[in-house]
Amino acid sequence: MRRGKKYLTLSFDDGTIQDIRFVDILNQYGLKCTFNLNSGFWGQKHRIIHDGIDCDHTEIEENQVHDLYLGHEIAVHTVTHPNLLQLNADQIIHEVDDDRKALEALCHYPIVGMAYPGGPFYNEFVIKTITDNTPIRYARTCQNHHTFTFPARPMEWHPTCWIEDPQLMELADAFIRAESEEDMLFYIWGHSFEFEKYQSWQRLIDFCRLIADLPDIIYATNQACLAAKKSACR
Question: How many Å apart are CA 181 and CA 121, to the nearest integer?
């Protein structure tokens, strides 16, 4: 029986200052993440009320981007985080492609991925507008499926679970023990400011300790996972 490969990837949004500690933890454990950034908000110092909880949502400075995310992947999250369903085609192109160009000028490699701002705020018109007018070829939603499958449609890439999902550790244990003829993907998304919001930094570290440094798991960015899957299908 062919044994499929197992991939772990993370996808985090907004580029807040908590990414500094988050990236340090990821690097300690050898995990890879794709960071979806808004180029219109560099260095903004502000707080937000998120699910009724006051949170520090200060964004990183533009000059931090290159070094902070080195070894990970930078992807689009639009310039100003709008609801794309409320925009016309030209506005969508501006938000996505201008963000891509600004980010590419900082990371110095082609960007082909994104996460939809707000998660569910996309439809077929949004997808077609992006794919017809930009180099973006995959886009993450926030629709969790709690399985270890690769996306049937990369521009509608549903993750396994949210980082604060109550089932996170249970899913991690199941993924570690799982064997399949098909390749498997454990895909986790979130925002690093949520570790302060929920006081869950230790839970993150416990997860990393559990899942890291296992010989049968490939730790990769979103783009690298898709590239490996595409190559395997040839």
Answer: 34
How many other C-beta atoms lie within 10 A of the C-beta of residue 186?
22
- Encode the chain (234 residues) as per-residue pLDDT tens digits: 568 999 999 999 999 999 999 999 999 999 999 999 999 999 999 998 888 999 999 999 999 999 999 999 999 999 999 999 999 999 999 999 999 999 999 999 999 999 999 988 999 999 999 999 999 999 999 999 999 999 999 999 999 999 999 999 999 999 999 999 999 999 999 999 999 999 999 999 999 999 999 999 999 999 999 999 876 655
- Secondary structure letter of residue 148 according to DSSP: -
For residues 103 and 13, give the distance between their C-alpha atoms in angstroms, rounded to a whole number: 14
Q: Is 114 in contact with 136 (CB distance < 8 Å)? A: yes
> Which secondary structure element, helix H or strand E, spans residue 53, and what is its range?
strand 53-56
- Residue 57, both tokens: 């949502």
- Nearest of 222, 208, 136 to residue 168 by alpha carbon: 208
Q: Centre a 10 Å sphere on the Cβ of residue 99 and count the other Cβ atoms it contains.
A: 27
